[in-house]
Amino acid sequence: MAEHAGSVRRREDPRLITGAGEFVDDFRVPGCLHAVMLRSPHAHARIRSIDVSAARRAPGVVGVFLASDLGSAGVAIPIYAPHPALPVACGIRPLAGERVRFVGEAVAAVIADDPYRAWDALDLIRVEYEPLPALVDMDAALAPARASSTGRSSGSRRGGSTPSSPASSVTRSTTWSWRPPGRADSSPCATISSTTWAPTRSRG
Fold it and tell me: Which helix (H) or strand (E) is 128 found in, with range?
């Protein structure tokens, strides 16, 4: 649209390129506290133990919180904007309790009077994890739920042929597409899987 409206002179550049820009982290509010989160390095693991005693004694630390400290505030976070493509809520809690379900899930929260002190205290927390099998493939993750709800597998396959010779190249692809609500098929996603074999020619 710029070619129709003419040139628009930018007004924010001088303060940004001279270091005079102000952002949320630049504001200093008296008595402001800072929170940092300890996050899981595992995609799926059971939390066997968490030791936060050293972190709670660290300088400037106001509190260290685990899932067991949250009480009624530790329930699953509600969906802010429900969407028909996500009919089942993920059920993510503010802090993980007995197990973590993805890399980066928050396990503990440290509150301190300075962000650097909060990060220092975070390093003092000791967590013992028991790694569990993780699903990293979409078909594997959705297969049980889709089989129980629709009575069919999550993918479709045409034909039953196999490569004519070991010297064939195999290409497999899976395409996912979202289905809008109101269709006769209640499944929110459609899966198209295909396998292609092509003979490999030798160069002599």
Answer: strand 126-131
pLDDT higher than 90, residue 28? no
The C-alpha angle with vertex 202 and arms to 200 and 204, in degrees rounded to 5, equals 165
More confident residue, 145 or 101: 101
For the chain, list the domains and their CATH numbers: 32-131 (3.90.1170.50), 138-199 (no CATH)
Burial pattern 52-89, b for ≥16 Cβ within 10 A else e, equals beebeebebbeebbbbeeeeeebeeeeeeeeeeeeeee
| Cα 69 from chain centre | 24
- What's the CA gap between 63 and 125, in Å, rounded? 13
Global confidence as pTM: 0.62
